[in-house]
């Protein structure tokens, strides 16, 4: 037995093996016994014949090649494209199926062939590691595929490809065919590849390349044709549809994971006619054609240089439309802050909707929108606010700023104060409008101006107890904090609320402590939280008021020590009863108005000259004129409280001999009927500052900006030690943007100032680099 | 003689005011909302130690108050015998190192505290 085995020769066994192998290749039925025999024979040959494995492989190879040659003949016999493909795919799929079966009996052959190249021990480990991929990497399989590749594929691949591409082309033109044919060709490309690192190598270099080329050719012809015959609008729909179609087609016919075909389509369909497409952008934005814009956006987004011009167009359009809108309505909106804010918001909503619908809120478009909004909000052509500091008479002009923050603050005031507007609206409506204001405020670059006006309005509301809803007032402060208003601004507002509460407690205590004073309320406030300008206005109070002063001061001294009180009579106010011959009216008045009116108590029917009123009240000239004007020409009154002679049109034309007297016929007129009783508010806008302190106020804003800029520069330098001019500017704007936008000029001036004062210096080698000096 | 009469008149008027305001006067006071501002009665507005206005909380208190309720009122002012004034918080830290007034170098002793 052993001897017999020793003499076992490959040639003896191959005779039995060969027919079975051929049957397998041809996909003819193989009995179980034959199948088993093959295993056994392979086993014997590999085990007992030293040269067996090599010989076995060579013979196997030869037979495979033979088989393939026959298959090739069968395929090439077909003349027609479709038939050729069909035949090829049929042959190939047969062959490929066998690739999975034929190697199985030859496993042992593989191990013995491998054993020659690597040590047995390691091959065991390798074997177990690679078990999973065993069939993929089997030598016989590789042999089969390589043979197919060399002997049939190389010869006819061009014909195959061409045929496949012709079919795809036909499909593009709307003809139906069996897509399986193209898929089959593609699969053969992929499966043929025995390169383990890159399985798609053959496929990519041949099939995909051909596919891309034919696609490009197709659309290179079609696209311009479509564009010229059907126009841009239709073309965009065409391009969009075709891109989707090609994506679907690529999914069907190509391997996943490669985007080259679509990129090629995009280049031909969108990249080439880009300028024609872009020219359509502005008209579409103007017409608000969101659907078409969306289509355009989807198309242009696919090419890198497509979106930026669209952004530019959008920004330009919003800016222009916004400014045109503002200018057209200039007459109304400069006067009426409600109309202004509403107009602005309407504009915002319109364009936000456009960006949402046309560009799906793409961040890049949102940024473009925001940029345009900023330009509209901060524009100074319709109206401007000049931070007149009183110093720029000497030719030093201050750059004008948008009046927007002032109007926004006015609008807030209308919502938060008891006004017809705030009464008309529900609490939710007020809240949403306040949020709207905050939205606009986001775009305002001089936020510090808003805060100044807002604070002034708040002061008035708190002092006159005119808030519509104190809860909402405090909410607003928190919202301001949330939108990033600098903490020190917001804290000041919060402090005012706190202080007013302290003052209310104090007032309650005061009223308990005395019995006769139910006619007086006191507000004693923290000067640090409320007052800005130091200026007070002198006034000689009517005795009725003057009497209270020492008592309040006495009371306060008992409560606190180390404090001094300053009376702010320009802020105080009250209610007086005015009795005429026929009627009785309650008048809400300022203390100044009170001082003027009380002058008539001693001589009710006298005409008093301006000069005598001045002596009686001791009010400064400007204040007296203003106060008198509010009594002779109060806008809401049909019949004025005081009459005067000679008639003038502006308060500054009063002279010292102008005489004033009480209008004994005073009455309220409602619906054309005179009323005998009633209440009038003559306070108007409570005056917080005089002209001089207005200038002081402006100065303080400018001064504060200077300090903030210096502070921020030092902060940055402390951190960076050394920084280039441009980087410094960027960081500076970033720090300050919640307060104001520093002008280039101011930054430069402050840099010079800091250098002069040795806080920093310029780099010796580069004057545009700054170095921090500790 | 003339002046005497005038004064008598005025006295009369005043008495009548008190008794019977509403009948006599054209304008009578119903309510007065008086506004005043208080501030520390100091010679210098700024605390020489922390360089913050004495009306505002000192630097430390400002930094801390960011965490809890803002605008606390208890950062008071202190006056020394020399009449110089500082935030009480600032001064109490200062005297631990140097018991002299930072402005005039006199020995520090508290004259009074703000309340």
UniProtKB/TrEMBL annotation, chain A:
<dbReference type="InterPro" id="IPR001373">
    <property type="entry name" value="Cullin_N"/>
</dbReference>
<feature type="coiled-coil region">
    <location>
        <begin position="186"/>
        <end position="213"/>
    </location>
</feature>
<dbReference type="InterPro" id="IPR019559">
    <property type="entry name" value="Cullin_neddylation_domain"/>
</dbReference>
<keyword id="KW-0539">Nucleus</keyword>
<keyword id="KW-0833">Ubl conjugation pathway</keyword>
<keyword id="KW-0175">Coiled coil</keyword>
<keyword id="KW-0832">Ubl conjugation</keyword>
<dbReference type="InterPro" id="IPR059120">
    <property type="entry name" value="Cullin-like_AB"/>
</dbReference>
<feature type="domain" description="Cullin family profile">
    <location>
        <begin position="403"/>
        <end position="632"/>
    </location>
</feature>
<comment type="similarity">
    <text>Belongs to the cullin family.</text>
</comment>
<keyword id="KW-1017">Isopeptide bond</keyword>
<dbReference type="InterPro" id="IPR016159">
    <property type="entry name" value="Cullin_repeat-like_dom_sf"/>
</dbReference>
<comment type="pathway">
    <text>Protein modification; protein ubiquitination.</text>
</comment>
<dbReference type="InterPro" id="IPR036317">
    <property type="entry name" value="Cullin_homology_sf"/>
</dbReference>
<dbReference type="InterPro" id="IPR016157">
    <property type="entry name" value="Cullin_CS"/>
</dbReference>
<dbReference type="Pfam" id="PF00888">
    <property type="entry name" value="Cullin"/>
</dbReference>
<dbReference type="Pfam" id="PF26557">
    <property type="entry name" value="Cullin_AB"/>
</dbReference>
<dbReference type="GO" id="GO:0007165">
    <property type="term" value="P:signal transduction"/>
</dbReference>
<dbReference type="Pfam" id="PF10557">
    <property type="entry name" value="Cullin_Nedd8"/>
</dbReference>
<dbReference type="InterPro" id="IPR016158">
    <property type="entry name" value="Cullin_homology"/>
</dbReference>
<dbReference type="GO" id="GO:0016567">
    <property type="term" value="P:protein ubiquitination"/>
</dbReference>
<protein>
    <recommendedName>
        <fullName>Cullin-5</fullName>
    </recommendedName>
</protein>
From TrEMBL, chain B:
<keyword id="KW-0539">Nucleus</keyword>
<keyword id="KW-0862">Zinc</keyword>
<dbReference type="InterPro" id="IPR024766">
    <property type="entry name" value="Znf_RING_H2"/>
</dbReference>
<dbReference type="GO" id="GO:0035556">
    <property type="term" value="P:intracellular signal transduction"/>
</dbReference>
<dbReference type="Pfam" id="PF12678">
    <property type="entry name" value="zf-rbx1"/>
</dbReference>
<comment type="pathway">
    <text>Protein modification; protein ubiquitination.</text>
</comment>
<dbReference type="InterPro" id="IPR013083">
    <property type="entry name" value="Znf_RING/FYVE/PHD"/>
</dbReference>
<dbReference type="GO" id="GO:0043161">
    <property type="term" value="P:proteasome-mediated ubiquitin-dependent protein catabolic process"/>
</dbReference>
<dbReference type="InterPro" id="IPR051031">
    <property type="entry name" value="RING-box_E3_Ubiquitin_Ligase"/>
</dbReference>
<protein>
    <recommendedName>
        <fullName>RING-box protein 2</fullName>
        <ecNumber>2.3.2.27</ecNumber>
        <ecNumber>2.3.2.32</ecNumber>
    </recommendedName>
</protein>
<keyword id="KW-0863">Zinc-finger</keyword>
<keyword id="KW-0963">Cytoplasm</keyword>
<dbReference type="GO" id="GO:0061630">
    <property type="term" value="F:ubiquitin protein ligase activity"/>
</dbReference>
<keyword id="KW-0479">Metal-binding</keyword>
<comment type="subunit">
    <text>Catalytic component of multiple cullin-5-RING E3 ubiquitin-protein ligase complexes (ECS complexes, also named CRL5 complexes) composed of CUL5, Elongin BC (ELOB and ELOC), RNF7/RBX2 and a variable SOCS box domain-containing protein as substrate-specific recognition component. Also interacts (with lower preference) with CUL1, CUL2, CUL3, CUL4A and CUL4B; additional evidence is however required to confirm this result in vivo. Interacts with UBE2F. Interacts with CSNK2B, the interaction is not affected by phosphorylation by CK2.</text>
</comment>
<dbReference type="GO" id="GO:0008270">
    <property type="term" value="F:zinc ion binding"/>
</dbReference>
<dbReference type="GO" id="GO:0005634">
    <property type="term" value="C:nucleus"/>
</dbReference>
<feature type="domain" description="RING-type">
    <location>
        <begin position="58"/>
        <end position="105"/>
    </location>
</feature>
<dbReference type="GO" id="GO:0005829">
    <property type="term" value="C:cytosol"/>
</dbReference>
<dbReference type="GO" id="GO:0061663">
    <property type="term" value="F:NEDD8 ligase activity"/>
</dbReference>
<keyword id="KW-0808">Transferase</keyword>
<keyword id="KW-0007">Acetylation</keyword>
């Amino acid at each position: 037995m052993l001897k017999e085995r020793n003499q076992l020769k490959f040639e003896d066994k191959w005779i039995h093996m060969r027919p079975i192998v051929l049957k397998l290749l041809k996909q003819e039925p193989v009995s179980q016994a034959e199948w088993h025999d093959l295993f056994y024979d392979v086993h014997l040959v590999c085990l007992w014949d030293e040269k067996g494995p090599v010989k076995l492989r060579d013979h196997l190879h030869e037979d495979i090649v033979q088989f393939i040659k026959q298959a090739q003949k069968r395929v090439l016999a077909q003349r027609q494209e479709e038939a050729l493909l069909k035949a090829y795919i049929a042959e190939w799929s047969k062959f490929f199926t066998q690739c999975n079966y034929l190697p199985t009996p030859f496993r042992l052959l593989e191990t013995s062939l491998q054993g020659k190249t690597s040590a047995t021990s390691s091959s065991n480990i390798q074997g177990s590691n690679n078990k999973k991929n065993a069939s993929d990497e089997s030598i016989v399989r590789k042999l089969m595929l390589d043979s197919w590749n060399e002997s049939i594929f190389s010869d006819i691949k061009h014909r195959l490809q061409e045929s496949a591409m012709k079919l795809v082309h036909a499909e593009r033109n709307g003809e139906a065919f069996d897509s399986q044919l193209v898929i089959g060709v593609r699969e053969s490309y992929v499966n043929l590849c025995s390169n383990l690192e890159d399985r798609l190598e053959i496929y990519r270099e041949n099939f995909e390349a051909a596919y891309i080329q034919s696609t490009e050719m197709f659309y290179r012809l079609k696209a311009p044709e479509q564009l010229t015959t059907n126009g841009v609008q239709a073309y965009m729909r065409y391009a969009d549809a075709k891109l989707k179609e090609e994506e679907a087609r690529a999914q069907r016919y190509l391997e996943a994971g490669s985007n080259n075909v679509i990129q090629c389509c995009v280049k031909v369909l969108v990249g080439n006619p880009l300028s024609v497409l872009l020219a359509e952008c502005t008209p579409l934005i103007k017409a608000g054609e969101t659907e078409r814009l969306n289509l355009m956006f989807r198309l242009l987004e696919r090419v890198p240089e497509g979106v930026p011009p669209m952004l530019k167009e959008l920004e330009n359009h919003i800016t222009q439309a916004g400014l045109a809108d503002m200018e057209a309505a200039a007459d109304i909106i400069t006067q009426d802050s409600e109309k202004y804010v509403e107009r602005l918001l309407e504009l915002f909503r319109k364009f936000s909707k456009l960006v949402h619908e046309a560009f799906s809120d793409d961040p890049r478009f949102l940024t473009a929108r925001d940029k345009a909004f900023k330009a509209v909000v901060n524009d100074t052509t319709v109206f401007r606010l000049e931070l007149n500091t009183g110093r720029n008479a000497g030719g030093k002009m201050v750059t004008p700023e948008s009046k927007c923050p002032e109007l926004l603050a006015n609008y807030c005031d209308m919502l938060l104060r008891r006004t017809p507007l705030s009464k008309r609206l529900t609490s939710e409506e007020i809240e949403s409008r306040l949020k709207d204001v905050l939205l606009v405020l986001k775009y305002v670059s001089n936020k510090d101006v808003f805060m100044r006006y807002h604070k002034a309005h708040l002061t008035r509301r708190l002092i006159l107890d005119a808030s519509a809803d104190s809860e909402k007032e405090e909410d607003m402060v928190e919202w301001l904090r949330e939108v990033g208003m600098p903490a020190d601004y917001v804290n000041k507002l919060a402090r005012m609320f706190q202080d007013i509460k302290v003052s209310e407690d104090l007032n309650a205590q005061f009223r308990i402590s005395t019995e006769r004073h139910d006619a007086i309320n006191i507000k004693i406030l923290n000067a640090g939280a409320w007052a800005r300008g130091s200026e007070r206005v002198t006034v000689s109070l009517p005795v009725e008021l003057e009497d209270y002063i020492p008592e309040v001061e006495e009371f306060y001294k008992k409560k606190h020590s180390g404090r001094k009180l300053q009376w702010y009579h320009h802020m105080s106010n009250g209610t007086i009863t005015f009795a005429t011959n026929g009627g009785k009216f309650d008048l809400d008045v300022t203390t100044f108005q009170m001082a003027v009116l009380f002058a008539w108590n001693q001589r009710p029917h006298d005409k008093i000259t301006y000069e005598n009123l001045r002596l009686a009240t001791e009010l400064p000239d400007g204040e007296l004129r203003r106060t008198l004007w509010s009594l002779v020409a109060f806008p809401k009154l049909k019949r004025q409280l005081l009459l005067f002679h000679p008639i003038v049109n502006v308060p500054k034309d009063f002279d010292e001999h102008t005489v004033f007297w009480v209008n004994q016929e005073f009455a309220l007129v409602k619906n054309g009927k005179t009323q005998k009783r009633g209440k009038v508010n003559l306070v108007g806008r409570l005056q917080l500052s005089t002209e001089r302190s207005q200038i002081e106020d402006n100065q303080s804003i400018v001064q504060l900006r200077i300090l903030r800029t210096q502070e921020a520069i030092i902060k940055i330098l402390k951190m960076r030690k050394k920084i280039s001019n441009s980087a410094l500017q960027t960081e500076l704007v970033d720090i300050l943007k919640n307060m104001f936008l520093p002008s280039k000029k101011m930054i430069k001036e402050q840099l010079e100032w800091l250098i002069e004062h040795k806080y920093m210096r310029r780099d010796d080698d580069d004057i545009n680099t700054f170095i921090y000096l500790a | 003689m003339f002046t005497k009469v005038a004064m008598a008149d005025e006295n009369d008027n005043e008495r009548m005011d008190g008794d019977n305001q509403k009948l006599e006067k054209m304008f009578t006071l119903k309510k007065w909302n008086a506004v005043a501002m208080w501030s520390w009665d100091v010679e210098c507005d700024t605390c020489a130690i922390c360089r913050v206005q004495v009306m505002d909380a000192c630097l430390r208190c400002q930094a801390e108050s960011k965490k809890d309720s803002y605008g606390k009122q208890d950062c008071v002012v202190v006056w020394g015998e020399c009449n110089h004034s500082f935030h009480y918080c600032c001064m109490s830290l200062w005297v631990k190192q140097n018991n002299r007034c930072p402005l005039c170098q006199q020995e520090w002793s508290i004259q009074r505290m703000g309340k």
